[in-house]
Design brief:
Elements: H1 18-27, H2 66-78, E1 86-91, E2 97-101, H3 153-162, E3 173-177, E4 205-206, E5 209-210, H4 227-230, H5 240-248, E6 258-259, H6 263-275, E7 279-282, E8 353-356, H7 364-368, H8 371-377, E9 381-384, E10 388-390, E11 400-406, H9 412-425, E12 429-434, E13 438-440, H10 446-454, E14 479-484, H11 488-493, E15 498-502, E16 507-512, E17 515-518, H12 530-536, H13 542-553, E18 557-561, H14 565-568, E19 573-574, E20 577-582, H15 588-603, E21 609-612, H16 621-636, E22 649-652, E23 670-671, H17 674-683, H18 690-701, H19 707-721, H20 724-739, H21 749-762, H22 777-794, H23 801-812, H24 823-855, H25 876-889, E24 894-895, H26 906-913, H27 919-932, H28 941-954, H29 969-989, H30 1000-1015, H31 1017-1050, E25 1054-1058, H32 1079-1091, H33 1099-1104, H34 1106-1121, H35 1123-1128, E26 1130-1133, E27 1136-1137, E28 1144-1151, E29 1154-1161, H36 1169-1172, H37 1176-1180, E30 1187-1189, H38 1192-1195, E31 1199-1201, E32 1207-1208, E33 1215-1217, H39 1218-1221, E34 1228-1233
Parallel strand pairs: 8-9, 8-25, 9-12, 12-21, 14-18, 21-22, 22-23, 24-25
Antiparallel strand pairs: 1-2, 3-6, 3-7, 4-5, 10-11, 13-20, 15-16, 16-17, 19-20, 26-28, 27-30, 28-29, 29-34, 30-33, 31-32, 31-34
Helix pairs in contact: 2-6, 15-16, 19-21, 19-24, 20-21, 20-24, 21-22, 21-23, 22-23, 24-29, 26-28, 26-31, 28-31, 29-30, 30-31, 31-34, 32-34
C-alpha cells in the first residue's frame, strides 16, 4: 500500500524519502536531492549530505532542517567539517568570504532582559553578573548592568526578545544578520557587548505560522547540539575603523531571522544562505519534552534502531550501507564557575570519568583540592559517591537518612558548590551517585522515625515498603525492629532497655544498645509527669519491668532479636541487611521527595549526570527511568544558559549475566561498566587452562560438583535461611491468586512453595522486567530457561503435577492481565509479580557474588562482580561482538576495570590471569606451598589455596622477595590486610563460619596461619618463596594490565577511572579498596609524565607504576584532542597475519577523516615481559613477521603513536609490522588525521 505524503514532504522510508535519498546517493542512482545553495569558492567537496524533510515535522533535530541546511551549505562551500572553528567576517576580495579561526570557549548568550546579544560572552560580563544565582556560588545567567537604547529595527528585535516565550515551542529560532550594514543607519555607538546587533527581526513561528501568544518565564538558552559551536560563529566586535570600512562597502540586503522548521523557515534559510550569512545566533532552546532524539523524550535502543541524527555543526557524511546507526547525543556548554573575569572551558558530554569515594575523611573540599590533578590527568567528569546525608560516620554514603540534604559530614551544599565552581574552571563536570532503592532504617532518619512513632498513620508510612497486615497477629499494624543483640526477654530482664525523657524536647524515648527510638505519646500513661516516667518504668524492679513491657507492646514497632529478621521481617530490606529499608519510588510522591535535591542541583547546573544505584531493586525500573527522564528534562529547561544540555547523563548499576543485555525500553546511557570489567578480564584468560585449573581445584577442595550445581545449592541455602520471610510472603501472594480461580484453588501453599523454590533456584539472571504489558523478548527467554532448569531440579516429567504447577506459576508471573479481566486478580498478580521481581536480585547477588565466588576458586581472577563461573575465557570474536553491540545500543556506557565493590584490584586480577598461560607450572608451585604450610586441620585445603592465590596477586610490585627475611612494619601492615580479607572471605563462603554463625576456633586458626608467615622462620621462608614467584610473575601481569587499560580508554564507551588506580592497584575487597589515596605520589608522577618529552620506560618506572599513569594520561589526552573520534567513531576489528596472529588484538576507529589504530597483546604476557623489565628489544622479537593491514581509505598518510610520541611506519599497501608498532611498549594507539 502506497504511503500518503504530507504536503510538501515525503513518506518516511518510502521512495524519495530522505532515507532513500541517502541510499540513492551512495549507489549513484535513483532520485537525487535538490541542489543546495553554496557559499564561497565553488568546487569544494561536500562535507555532509543534506536531506529534506516533511514540512509538518514537529522537531528540529536532523541535518535536513532549515538552520542545518544553511550550515551544511556554508560548510560545503568552505570545505569545512567543523563550522564552529571559523568565524564569518565581511566580504573579502572578488566576492569571496574571509574566515579566521576563533576560540571555542566563552559561549555567547541571549539575555532575557536585554534581548538578543550576539557575540556576548558569559565570561566577559561585569563582575558579579555571571556568578548570580539563588545561592552563593550558583551558576545562573548573568544580570544585566546596561540597557542599550534601541533604535529602528533594533527596537523590534529587543521588543520581541524581551517577550516571554511559551515553554512548549518545539523549535529553535535563529537570528541571521547580513554581511554589511546600511551606511549611516546607526550613528550612536551601542552599549558594550551589543555592537554587532544592527538589524533583523525575531520571527517566532509554530509550524511555519506566526505565534503572537508565546509566553515563557524561562531565560534564553542555546540550542542543544549546535550550542557551543554556533555560539562562536559571529566573532568579537570589530573596531570602529573596521565598522566604517564595512559601512563604505556595497550594501547587502539584510535577511530576517527564520524559524528552523516549516516551509517558510526553509525558504528563509535558503535566502539567507544565498545572500551570505554573516552571523548565526541561537536565542531559544528546545523545550524539555522535545530534547531527546528520535521521538520526544525517547532514547534509542536495540529494539528500536536509532535514526541517523547528526548535529548541524558536525556536518558528518552519512554512514556507509553496512555501518550501524548510533544515537549521538549533543555536546554541552557549561556555566562559568563564579569567576566572570576569565574564560571558562566548555564541558562536553562525559569523555572520561573519575570515581571518588566521599566520607568524613575525604570531603567535597578534599575533592576540590584534586580538581587540577584530575583535569591534568585528562578526565572530563568527577563521578561522586552518594552526596546525600547518610548515617553518622558512614564510609560509603549508601545508608541515606535524608534525601533532601547534602551530607554535612562532606561539607554540605556550600562545599558542593565550591567543588562545582572549581570543576567548571577546569572544564570538568560532576556526576553524582543517587540511592533511590533504600534508606537507613535508623532513628536518625526523620521519615523512619515518624513511622516508628505514628505507625501506619504516619505521613511517611507509604514511603517505605512495609506489609502492615502480615499473617502474624503480633505484627499487624506494626514494624518489626530486629535491632537487639540478644533475645527480647533477656534484654528486658537485664536492663538493656530503658525509658528516658529527652530534656531538650521533653519527649519520652526508648534507649537500647543500638540507639534511641521514639515512644508514641498515646501509649504513655495519663496524668504522670514526664520526670516520673523513667522511675515508673524502671526495669530493675519487677513492677517496672512489667510496666515497660506493656508500654513496648503498645508501640507501632516490635523490638526483636536480630536473628528474627530472616523469618519475620515484614518490610523490604536491601539484600539481607536489616539496617536498610526499601523505599517505594514507584509512588510519584515518594519519587519526587527522593529526587528533589538531585533535580534541583541539576537544574542549577551543579550536577550534570546521575548514577542510579541498584536499579534491579525497584518495583518497575523501566517506569522509573521514564519518570526520571521526564523530570530531568523539566529540570534541564531551567538550567542556566551556559549549562544547557539536551539530556542529563544517566547510567545504572546493573549486573548482566552472560549474553544478557539491558532492557531496550530503558531510557539511559548504559551501565556503570561491570559488564566490560568481566568481558575484558575473560579476554585475557586462556581457554586451554580452564580444564587443568578446575581439575586441580577439585583435587584440592575435594568437591567434584560443577559450579552450576554449587550455585543452586547456595541459592537454596539463601532461600531457606536468609530470605525465608520474603519467600513466604511471595508464596502467600501466589496462594491468594490461586484462591481467586476455581480452576486453581486446590494448589496448596506447600506445593506452591516447593515449586517456587525450584524456580527461584534455577533463575538464570538477576531479574525479569515484566512491565508495560508483560515480558520482553529477553525475559521470555530467561523464563523458559528457568522453567527447564526448575523441572530438572523437581524431577518433574511433562504432564506431572509439579510440571503443571510450574507452568501455572509462570503464567501468574508473566505480567499480563488475567483473562477474563478481573480487578482483584489483576491486583493480586501485580503484588506477586512485584515481590517476585524484587526477590530474585538479592537472591542472585548473595548466592553468586557473596557466596559462591568465595567458596569456588579455580582461579580468583575470574571471581569478580559481574563475572559468571560458566564463562572462564572469552574469544576475541565474542569480545568484539559485545564491543560492537555496546557501541550500537549504548555508545556512552561506562567502561570500568575497578570499582568500589570489586573483590580484588584490576592489576591483581591481571597478574593472576597470567597463570592461565602456565597452568602446569602453577600447579606444581602451589602443591609445594600447600605441603609446606603448618598444620593439617583448620583452615581447610581449599581455604589455604585461596590464600595462596591472594598472596601472589596482591604482592606489591615494588617489593623484593628479600623483604620477607627482614620483616618490617610495612610487611606487617600488608599481612594484616590479608588477614582481614581472609576473615571476610571465610564468613561470606558460609562453609566453616559465617556472619550469622561465626566459628571462633576456625577463624583463629586461619589468622594464625597468616601470622606464621611473619612470625615463624618456616613461615618467612614460605612467604619468601611465594613472593619470589609473584615478583617473577609481576612483569607479565603488567603486560595484561596495559592491555586492559588501553582497551578501557579507547574502545567505544566512557572510560571510568576508580580513585587511585592510575598506579598499580593490588587492593582487596572492601573496605580495603577504599583506603586513602596517596595523591602526593600521584601528583609527582603526573608532573613527570606531562613534562617529559619522551615516556619514561625504565624498569623503575614499571615497578612503581608511573608508567601506567603515563599511559592513562596520554590516552585521555588523545581522547581530549579528538573527542568525536572516540565518542562517535565506528570500531572495526582488524585481522592480524603471521606466526603471532593469535596473540594480538587490533581495532580501527574512524570518524570524518580521523582514524585511530588500537593494538594490544593477548595470551602472550610471559613472552612479552621484557617490556616491563626495561628491555623492550627482548620482547620486540616476539612480533617478527607478524603484521596487520589497514583498509585502503586509511592506508596512506602519516600515523602518529599517541603514547610513545613517534611516527608509525605504514607500507604503501597498508601493512603495518607489529614489531614496529610495538617497538617500545606492549600496546599502541596510533592516530591519523586526514583533512
Amino acid at each position: 500500500m502506497a504511503r500518503r505524503r504530507k504536503p510538501g514532504g515525503r513518506a518516511r522510508g518510502g521512495p524519495g524519502s530522505r532515507h532513500a535519498d541517502r541510499a540513492d546517493r551512495r549507489s549513484g542512482g535513483g532520485r537525487q536531492p535538490r541542489r543546495q545553495p553554496r557559499l564561497g569558492t565553488p568546487g569544494r567537496p561536500d562535507a555532509a549530505h543534506v536531506h529534506r524533510r516533511s514540512a509538518g515535522h514537529p522537531q528540529s533535530h536532523g541535518p535536513e532542517l532549515g538552520l542545518d541546511r544553511v550550515l551544511a551549505a556554508g560548510a560545503r562551500r568552505l570545505g569545512l567539517r567543523r563550522l564552529h572553528r571559523y568565524a564569518a567576517r565581511g566580504p573579502g576580495p572578488r566576492g569571496r568570504r574571509a574566515h579566521r579561526p576563533y576560540p571555542r570557549h566563552g559561549a555567547a548568550v541571549a539575555h532575557p532582559r536585554r534581548g538578543l546579544r550576539p557575540g556576548r560572552r558569559l565570561s566577559a560580563l561585569p563582575a558579579g553578573d555571571a556568578a548570580r544565582a539563588d545561592g552563593a556560588g550558583g551558576l545562573a545567567p548573568p544580570r544585566p548592568r546596561h540597557r542599550r537604547k534601541p533604535g529602528h529595527g533594533a527596537r523590534r528585535v529587543q521588543r520581541h526578545a524581551r517577550r516571554p516565550w511559551h515553554a512548549g515551542h518545539e523549535r529553535a529560532v535563529v537570528h541571521a544578520r547580513a554581511a554589511a550594514t546600511r551606511p549611516g543607519r546607526y550613528r550612536r555607538r551601542p552599549a558594550r557587548g551589543a555592537r554587532r546587533l544592527r538589524r533583523g527581526r525575531l520571527l517566532a513561528r509554530r509550524g511555519g505560522r506566526h505565534d503572537h501568544h508565546a509566553r515563557s518565564a524561562h531565560p534564553a538558552r542555546l540550542v542543544g547540539g549546535t550550542r557551543h559551536r554556533l555560539a562562536h560563529s559571529a566573532g568579537p566586535a570589530r573596531p570602529r575603523r573596521q565598522r566604517r570600512r564595512a559601512a563604505a562597502r556595497p550594501r547587502r540586503r539584510p535577511r530576517a531571522a527564520f524559524a528552523s522548521h516549516g516551509p517558510r523557515g526553509r525558504r528563509a534559510a535558503r535566502r539567507a544562505a544565498a545572500g551570505g550569512l554573516a552571523a548565526l545566533r541561537v536565542v531559544r532552546a528546545l523545550p524539555a519534552h522535545a530534547r531527546a532524539h528520535g521521538r520526544p523524550g525517547r532514547r534509542a535502543g536495540p529494539a528500536e534502531p536509532a535514526r541517523h541524527h547528526r548535529h548541524a555543526s558536525e556536518l558528518a557524511p552519512a554512514p556507509s550501507a553496512g555501518q550501524p546507526r548510533v544515537l549521538r547525543r549533543p555536546r554541552r556548554a557549561f556555566a562559568a564557575g563564579g569567576d566572570p573575569g576569565r574564560p571558562e572551558p566548555a564541558v562536553s558530554a562525559p569523555r572520561a570519568t573519575a570515581r571518588l569515594q566521599l566520607h568524613a575523611g575525604y570531603t567535597l573540599d578534599d575533592a576540590r583540592a584534586r580538581v587540577d590533578y584530575y583535569a591534568d590527568l585528562g578526565v572530563s567528569h568527577l563521578y561522586l559517591s552518594p552526596i546525600t546525608r547518610a548515617r553518622a560516620g558512614s564510609t560509603h554514603g549508601y545508608d541515606v537518612i535524608d534525601h533532601a540534604t547534602v551530607n554535612p559530614e562532606l561539607g554540605g551544599e556550600p562545599a558542593l558548590r565550591r567543588l562545582a565552581q572549581a570543576a567548571r574552571r577546569r572544564g570538568l563536570g560532576l556526576i553524582a551517585d543517587i540511592v533511590p532503592n533504600h534508606m537507613a532504617a535508623d532513628p536518625a532518619n526523620p521519615w523512619w522515625r515518624d513511622v516508628l512513632a505514628r505507625g501506619e498513620a504516619s505521613a511517611w508510612s507509604r514511603h517505605f515498603d512495609i506489609d502492615w497486615q502480615p499473617p502474624d497477629p503480633a505484627l499487624r499494624g506494626k514494624v518489626l525492629l530486629p535491632v537487639l543483640a540478644e533475645p527480647y526477654g533477656d534484654a528486658l530482664a537485664n536492663g538493656s532497655l530503658r525509658l528516658l525523657v529527652d530534656p531538650a524536647s521533653d519527649q519520652a524515648e526508648l534507649e537500647t544498645p543500638g540507639g534511641r527510638y521514639p515512644v508514641a505519646s498515646a501509649s504513655l500513661p495519663r496524668g504522670v509527669a514526664a520526670q516520673d516516667l523513667a522511675a515508673l518504668h524502671d526495669p530493675s524492679t519487677q513492677t517496672g519491668c512489667e510496666r515497660l513491657h506493656a508500654l513496648l507492646e503498645r508501640q507501632h514497632y516490635r523490638l526483636a532479636w536480630w536473628r528474627t529478621a530472616p523469618d519475620q521481617i515484614n518490610w523490604r530490606r536491601f539484600f539481607e541487611i536489616s539496617e536498610l529499608v526499601g523505599v517505594r519510588v514507584e509512588d510519584e510522591g515518594v519519587f519526587d521527595a527522593v529526587h528533589a535535591l538531585a533535580l534541583r542541583l541539576y537544574a542549577e547546573g551543579i550536577l550534570d549526570g546521575l548514577r542510579i544505584d541498584h536499579i534491579d531493586g525497584l518495583a518497575s525500573p523501566g517506569a522509573y527511568l521514564r519518570r526520571l527522564d521526564r523530570r530531568l528534562a523539566e529540570a534541564g529547561a531551567a538550567r542556566p544558559a551556559a549549562c544547557a544540555q539536551a539530556q542529563a547523563y544517566v547510567v545504572v548499576e546493573k549486573i548482566l549475566a552472560p549474553g544478557e543485555v539491558p532492557d531496550p525500553r530503558w531510557r539511559m546511557d548504559g551501565t556503570t561498566g561491570y559488564d566490560f570489567m568481566d568481558q575484558v578480564g575473560a579476554l585475557l584468560h586462556s581457554p586451554a587452562a580452564e580444564a587443568p585449573l578446575q581439575a586441580f581445584w577439585q583435587d584440592v577442595s575435594g568437591d567434584k560438583r560443577p559450579a552450576r550445581t554449587q550455585l543452586v545449592a547456595a541459592r537454596r541455602r539463601m532461600l531457606t535461611r536468609h530470605f525465608a520471610a520474603e519467600r513466604l510472603a511471595l508464596v502467600r501472594s501466589l496462594e491468594r491468586i490461586a484462591r481467586l480461580d476455581a480452576r486453581s484453588r486446590d494448589w496448596s501453599a506447600n506445593a506452591i512453595d516447593r515449586v517456587l523454590s525450584a524456580l527461584l533456584a534455577a533463575f538464570p539472571v538477576y531479574r525479569s522486567y515484566a512491565e508495560d504489558g508483560g515480558r520482553g523478548a529477553a525475559d521470555r527467554r530467561a523464563c523458559r530457561l528457568a522453567r527447564r532448569r526448575a523441572a530438572v531440579l523437581l524431577a518433574a516429567r511433562p504432564g506431572s503435577a509439579d510440571a503443571t504447577l510450574l507452568a501455572q506459576l509462570d503464567r501468574w508471573l508473566d505480567g499480563a492481565d488475567p483473562l477474563p479481566p478481573d480487578a482483584r486478580a489483576s491486583e493480586a498478580r501485580a503484588l506477586a509479580l512485584r515481590r517476585f521481581q524484587q526477590l530474585t536480585p538479592p537472591l542472585a547477588a548473595k548466592s553468586l557474588e557473596d557466596t559462591l565466588l568465595y567458596r569456588y576458586g579455580p582461579l580468583l581472577s575470574r571471581n569478580e562482580v559481574g563475572a559468571s563461573p560458566d564463562e572462564f575465557a572469552l574469544a576475541p570474536e565474542a569480545f568484539d561482538a559485545r564491543v560492537r553491540a555496546r557501541a550500537l545500543a549504548y555508545p556512552r556506557a561506562m567502561l570500568a576495570t575497578a570499582t568500589h565493590d570489586h573483590k580484588r584490584g584490576e592489576d591483581a586480577r591481571a597478574r593472576l590471569a597470567v597463570l592461565s598461560e602456565m597452568p602446569q607450572a602453577w600447579r606444581e608451585a602451589a602443591t609445594r606451598w600447600l605441603q609446606a604450610m603448618p598444620g593439617r586441620g583448620a583452615p581447610s585445603a581449599a581455604d589455604r589455596y585461596l590464600l595462596l592465590q591472594t598472596l601472589v596477586g596482591a604482592w606489591p610490585a615494588d617489593w623484593d622477595a628479600d623483604r620477607c627475611a627482614r620483616p618490617d612494619a610495612a610487611l606487617a601492615q600488608w599481612l594484616e590486610r590479608i588477614a582481614e580479607w581472609q576473615l571476610k572471605a571465610l564468613r561470606e563462603a558460609k562453609l566453616h563460619t559465617s556472619w550469622t554463625d561465626p566459628d571462633p576456633a576456625y577463624e583463629a586458626a586461619a589468622r594464625a596461619l597468616v601470622g606464621s608467615l611473619q612470625d615463624a622462620p618456616a613461615g618467612r621462608a614460605l612467604l619468601g618463596a611465594i613472593a619470589g614467584f609473584a615478583s617473577g610473575l609481576a612483569p607479565a601481569g603488567m603486560i595484561n594490565s596495559f592491555a586492559q587499560t588501553l582497551l578501557r580508554n579507547t574502545l567505544p564507551g566512557v572510560p571510568d577511572l576508580y580513585q587511585g588506580t592510575e598506579l598499580w592497584d593490588f587492593s582487596l575487597v572492601d573496605p580495603d579498596n577504599r583506603r586513602p589515596v596517596d595523591y602526593a605520589r600521584r601528583d609527582a608522577a603526573l608532573a613527570r609524565a606531562r613534562s617529559a618529552p619522551e615516556a619514561d620506560l625504565s624498569a623503575s618506572a614499571w615497578r612503581d607504576g608511573s608508567v601506567k599513569l603515563m599511559l592513562i594520561q596520554r590516552l585521555l589526552a588523545a581522547r581530549a584532542r579528538l573527542p568525536p573520534l572516540f565518542a562517535e567513531g565506528n570500531c572495526v576489528a582488524l585481522p592480524v597475519h603471521g606466526p603471532r596472529a593469535g596473540h594480538a588484538l587490533a581495532w580501527l576507529r574512524r570518524h570524518e577523516g580521523l582514524s585511530a589504530l588500537i593494538v594490544a597483546p593477548r595470551l602472550s604476557a610471559l613472552a612479552l615481559s621484557g617490556y616491563a623489565a626495561g628491555q623492550p628489544a627482548l620482547a620486540r622479537g616476539y612480533w617478527e613477521n607478524t603484521t596487520l593491514r589497514l583498509p585502503p581509505p586509511v592506508a596512506g598518510g602519516a600515523w602518529h603513536d599517541a603514547v610513545h610520541g613517534r611516527r608509525t611506519h605504514v607500507s604503501a599497501d597498508g601493512s603495518v609490522a607489529l614489531a614496529d608498532v610495538l617497538r617500545e611498549l606492549p600496546v599502541a594507539l596510533c592516530l591519523s588525521v586526514r583533512s
